[in-house]
Design a protein that fits this description.
Elements: E1 2-4, H1 11-22, H2 34-41, E2 47-53, E3 60-68, E4 73-76, E5 88-89, H3 97-103, E6 108-115, E7 125-135, H4 140-150, H5 152-169, E8 172-175, H6 181-197, H7 207-217, E9 220-221, E10 224-233, E11 236-245, E12 249-257, H8 266-280, E13 285-287, H9 294-299, E14 302-312, H10 316-336, H11 339-357
Parallel strand pairs: 4-6, 12-13
Antiparallel strand pairs: 1-2, 2-3, 3-4, 3-5, 6-14, 7-13, 7-14, 8-10, 9-10, 10-11, 11-12
Helix pairs in contact: 4-5
């Protein structure tokens, strides 16, 4: 095994990564591709990739991207913004999590969106969560028909709001893959305002995240490409979303809208247009990402299982990791699993956010 910075991966190693990933049978989530890891590596100096090699041939048979912190504490690459995490390994590799952590000189490896099927790490998970998805594999018409049956009031209301938006504000136009940098800046400004308004940490106030998003917006690899989708009214953007796509999966990442148009539910209109355009582009699955939200419940057709927790190597440093992380994680889980309490917590955060922006 050797450990390299993401930028030091050779193209042969990156191609081996892609081939292993393609044979895994897992959904082709773009966060699991070498392009995402390389992009994170360009803005996170402590990003690394463990390259596992076949003892006989020396050829790469596994990859684990991670970031290394103090005292050997590791975390999934891009933790906090990456919506799908794990390693890419040849089936039946016969490697244990402890051996892998030892080879990386890690006392722990933390994750919060570990994909299902990660046999090395799932046993170390502390909680299992759902990542809602929209399945348009049978085409958008089939999805819309099912949505009309499952949530008739929701669909009628959203369609009516789109017609009303067109009548009252101007022509409604949708662009699935917008290349205008100004539209991306608008989306990021909306999202920052939303974070502050709801009392959450503004991700775009962190320079590395802003730079990463701009870098990925220019990425056009077949299995990891940035996609900016924008809903315009009279050529004015009113809702937008930036995510990553592979050939078959669109990983939804940063949606936002102009609050001035909130009564028209432009975010919902945008997501339905995205689902239609994605199906037309050969994408079969839109991954909405973990976390509860009414719009996800309305749009989803099912869900994927993801996990949070940490694989640890026995020792004093592992104990320190447990003490620093586990009490906080358990408190978050306690609140998240109680809708009433979670709603109260969100309302409190929103009140605090309104006070901060005054």
């Amino acid at each position: 095994m050797c450990v390299v910075a993401p930028g030091e991966l050779s193209e042969a190693e990156a191609e081996a990564w892609r081939e292993l990933r393609a044979r895994s049978g897992a959904p082709a989530n773009p966060f699991m591709e070498p392009e995402f890891t390389r992009a994170v590596g360009s803005v996170r100096p402590r990003a690394r990739v463990a390259v596992v090699q076949d003892a006989g041939t020396g050829e790469p048979v596994g990859f684990l991207p991670y970031e290394k912190g103090r005292l050997g504490r590791g975390r999934a690459i891009g933790l906090g913004v990456s919506d799908c995490q794990g390693g890419v390994f040849r089936p039946g590799l016969g490697l244990s999590a402890r051996e892998l952590l030892t080879g990386c000189s890690l006392s722990a490896w933390e994750f919060d969106n570990l994909e299902a099927g990660q046999e090395l790490f799932v046993p170390a998970a502390a909680a299992a969560l759902e990542s809602p998805v929209i399945d348009v594999g049978a085409g958008y018409a089939a999805y819309e028909s099912a949505l009309r049956v499952r949530s008739p009031k929701f669909f009628r209301t959203t369609a009516a709001k789109e017609r009303k938006l067109g009548r009252q504000a101007g022509e409604v136009r949708f662009v699935f893959d917008e290349r205008d940098p100004a539209a991306l800046r608008t989306l990021m400004a909306w999202k920052s305002a939303q974070y502050r308004r709801t009392g959450r940490r503004d991700r775009f106030a962190q320079v590395w995240i802003s730079v990463l998003v701009r870098r990925l917006a220019a990425t056009r690899a077949p299995d990891c490409a940035g996609v900016l989708s924008v809903l315009y009214v009279a050529d004015r953007p009113v809702a937008a979303h930036f995510g990553l796509r592979s050939r078959t999966v669109l990983s939804c990442w940063f949606p936002a809208y102009d609050p001035e148009f909130a009564k028209y539910s432009p975010g919902l209109i945008l997501h339905l247009r995205m689902a239609e355009a994605a199906a037309g582009a050969g994408i079969g699955l839109l991954d909405l990402g973990r976390g509860a939200a009414e719009y996800k419940d309305a749009l989803k057709t099912g869900g994927l299982r993801v996990y949070e927790g940490a694989a640890v190597r026995p020792g004093a440093r592992a104990a320190l990791h447990w003490l620093s992380r586990e009490p906080s994680r358990r408190a978050h889980t306690f609140v998240r699993n109680r809708p009433g309490l979670a709603g109260y917590a969100q309302a409190t955060l929103s009140r605090m956010g309104r006070l901060r922006v005054r």
